[in-house]
Structures are given as structure tokens and as C-alpha cells.
Design a protein that fits this description.
The chain is mainly alpha-helical. It is about 90% helix and about 0% strand. It contains 3 helices and no strands. The longest helix has about 55 residues. The protein is rod-shaped, with a radius of gyration of 33 Å. The chain starts with a helix and ends with a helix.
Length: about 80
């Protein structure tokens, strides 16, 4: 194991080692940015789904309130038309 660390220490000091470390850092930064963007997109999708559920619930509640206010609108309409 110490031989491996010694070899890496020598390689990291060479020009090729510095280039390899720069590529590794760049790939790591790109990977981190990709994961952060993916997480943000997943959170946004979850928020949009919740917003849609809330809107659907509001619509259902409004319909339920209207039905409770006038349980048989068809009968009321027939009654109003029959008076004319």
C-alpha cells in the first residue's frame, strides 16, 4: 500500500499527474453540477404535482359546495322553463 502511495506521490508531481488531476477535478465538478440539477428538477416536478393536486382539490370542493347549495339544478331548470 505504501508503494502505491509513493508511486501516486511521484506521479502527482509530474506534468501528466497534474493534467490527470485537473481532468479528475473537472469531471467531478461536472458530475456534481449534473446531480444538483437533477435533484432540483425532481423537486420542481414534485412541487408541480402537489400544486396540481391542490388545484384539483379546490375544484372538487367548489363543485361539492355548488351541489350542496342546489342539489337538483335540473329540476330547478325544468320548473323555471315550465313557467314561461
Amino acid at each position: 500500500m505504501s508503494a502505491l502511495l509513493a508511486a501516486w506521490g511521484w506521479f502527482a508531481g509530474t506534468r501528466g499527474g497534474r493534467i490527470l488531476m485537473a481532468f479528475g477535478a473537472a469531471i467531478g465538478a461536472l458530475g456534481w453540477a449534473w446531480l444538483a440539477g437533477r435533484r432540483a428538477a425532481e423537486q420542481r416536478a414534485a412541487q408541480d404535482a402537489l400544486r396540481g393536486d391542490i388545484d384539483n382539490r379546490r375544484i372538487r370542493d367548489a363543485v361539492d359546495r355548488d351541489v350542496a347549495r342546489d342539489p337538483d339544478p335540473g329540476e330547478r331548470l325544468r320548473r323555471d322553463w315550465s313557467r314561461d
